[in-house]
């Protein structure tokens, strides 16, 4: 089977072997050694000296933690949304009782820093701005560095920048410290080549100050609690030990390569995927200036149904691609983050040519 969805992504064989190991005591020395290494290695990819907390949940739990730990009911929040995951971040903030202003970017496009700055000047001040690094639903990557600079200039020294980097980090660089972003969230089943079940969250000193003021209810996702335990390489409750085995094994190789080599690898595989689709005459959904290097969205030719193409790929070729969430358009998405080769994509191109008669 060729699993080409944007998460969960395929596991390399050595990660599968690691995940299959016997359980250990999560309060014992073997666990503490592993947890300490995973935390240190994650900081290499968050490009931060901030605290990194590892939560047992999917990525959405990390997004919820970002909101619940830094904000209070009634706080004004600017949510920059370019698709369904941006909408999810806004919905979480609303569920927790913040006053959310949505800056909705047309689907397929990236956020414009000048437009975000203008929204802050005209409708602010805001306690926090919510960003998506890589909008998986539309295959668009934001320029987080430029956005963060614009937000800081317009919003001031205390505005919190909370970033959903779930489908980007590990494959698309994000320099938490150099770009001065406050909370960055990612998930184990995306570019990390590990099973689902872990959310990893970095927290800046500014975000910890906000945590002290925060009046949101929190318990399982209390980051202060997570940090207290993380200081002795433990977690408040039983963690996802099997996913940690997998993440530990994949990070072992990832840190040897480093963030720039992995980003370059994803630039190449992203370009390869786009070129293969363009070569067969398909057009791409996203704005070419902001193509994602972890997922690609292709428009199907007039009259073709995405549901039918996806089912033909699955039943005829064992290839699993993803549907689009863009209303009214027949678009399919191909994931290419983590454990993926050009040969994996060649298989998709060959099958699509046959199915579409191209
Ligand atoms: C996958 C994804 C999520 C949701 O993560 P879950 O692990 O399914 O909770 C959120 N944001 C983005 C950008 C994603 O790609």
Characterise the protein shown here.
It is a single chain. Helix 2 crosses helix 9 and helix 3 (59-70) crosses helix 4. This protein has 12 helices and 15 strands. The strands form 4 sheets. The chain has a 7-stranded mixed β-sheet with strand order 2-10-9-8-5-3-4, with helices on both faces. A 4-stranded antiparallel β-sheet has the order 11-12-15-14, covered by helices on one side. Strands 1-13 form a two-stranded parallel sheet. It has 2 domains: 13-256, 3-Layer(aba) Sandwich (Aspartate Aminotransferase, domain 2); 259-356, Alpha-Beta Complex (Aspartate Aminotransferase, domain 1). It is an alpha/beta fold and 358 residues long. It is 43% helix and 17% strand. The protein has helices at residues 13-19, 29-46, 59-70, 84-95, 113-123, 144-155, 205-213, 223-230, 241-257, 259-279, 306-317, 342-356; strands at 2-3, 51-56, 76-81, 99-104, 128-132, 134-135, 140-141, 160-164, 183-187, 198-203, 283-284, 295-299, 319-320, 322-323, 331-335. Bound molecules: pyridoxal-5'-phosphate.
Question: What brief labels describe this structure?
Answer:
358 residues, alpha/beta, Aspartate Aminotransferase, domain 2, seven-stranded mixed beta sheet, four-stranded antiparallel beta sheet
Task: State the gist of this model.
By secondary structure, the protein is of the alpha/beta class. It has helices at 13-19, 29-46, 59-70, 84-95, 113-123, 144-155, 205-213, 223-230, 241-257, 259-279, 306-317, 342-356, and strands at 2-3, 51-56, 76-81, 99-104, 128-132, 134-135, 140-141, 160-164, 183-187, 198-203, 283-284, 295-299, 319-320, 322-323, 331-335.
């Amino acid at each position: 089977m060729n699993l080409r969805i944007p998460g969960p992504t395929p596991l390399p064989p050595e990660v599968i072997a690691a995940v299959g190991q016997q359980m250990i005591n999560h309060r014992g020395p073997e666990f503490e050694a592993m947890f300490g290494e995973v935390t240190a290695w994650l900081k290499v990819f968050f490009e931060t000296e901030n605290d990194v907390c590892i939560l047992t949940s999917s990525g959405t739990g990390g997004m919820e933690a970002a909101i619940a730990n830094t904000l209070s009911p009634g706080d004004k929040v600017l949510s920059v949304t370019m698709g369904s995951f941006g909408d999810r971040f806004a919905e979480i903030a609303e569920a927790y009782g913040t006053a959310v202003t949505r800056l909705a970017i047309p689907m397929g496009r990236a956020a414009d820093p000048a437009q975000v700055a203008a929204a802050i000047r005209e409708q602010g001040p805001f306690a926090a701005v919510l960003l998506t690094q890589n909008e998986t639903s539309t295959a668009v990557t934001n320029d987080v560095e430029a956005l963060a600079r614009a937000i800081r200039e317009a919003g001031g020294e205390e505005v919190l920048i909370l970033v959903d980097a779930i489908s980007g980090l590990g494959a698309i660089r994000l320099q938490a410290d150099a770009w001065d972003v406050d909370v960055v969230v990612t998930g184990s089943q995306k570019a990390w080549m590990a099973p689902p079940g872990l959310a990893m969250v970095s927290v800046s000193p500014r975000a910890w100050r906000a945590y002290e003021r925060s009046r949101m209810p929190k318990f399982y996702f209390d980051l202060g609690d997570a940090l207290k335990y993380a200081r002795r390489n433990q977690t408040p409750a039983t963690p996802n030990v099997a996913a940690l085995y997998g993440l530990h094994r994949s990070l072992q190789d990832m840190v040897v390569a480093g963030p720039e080599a992995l980003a370059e690898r994803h630039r190449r595989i992203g370009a390869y995927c786009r070129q293969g689709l363009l070569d067969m005459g398909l057009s791409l959904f996203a704005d070419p200036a902001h193509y994602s290097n972890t997922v690609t969205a292709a428009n199907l030719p007039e009259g073709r149904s995405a549901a039918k193409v996806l089912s033909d790929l699955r039943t005829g070729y064992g290839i699993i691609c993803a549907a689009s969430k863009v209303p009214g358009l027949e678009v399919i998405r191909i994931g290419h983050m983590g454990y993926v080769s050009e040969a994996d994509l060649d298989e998709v191109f060959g099958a699509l040519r046959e199915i579409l008669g191209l």
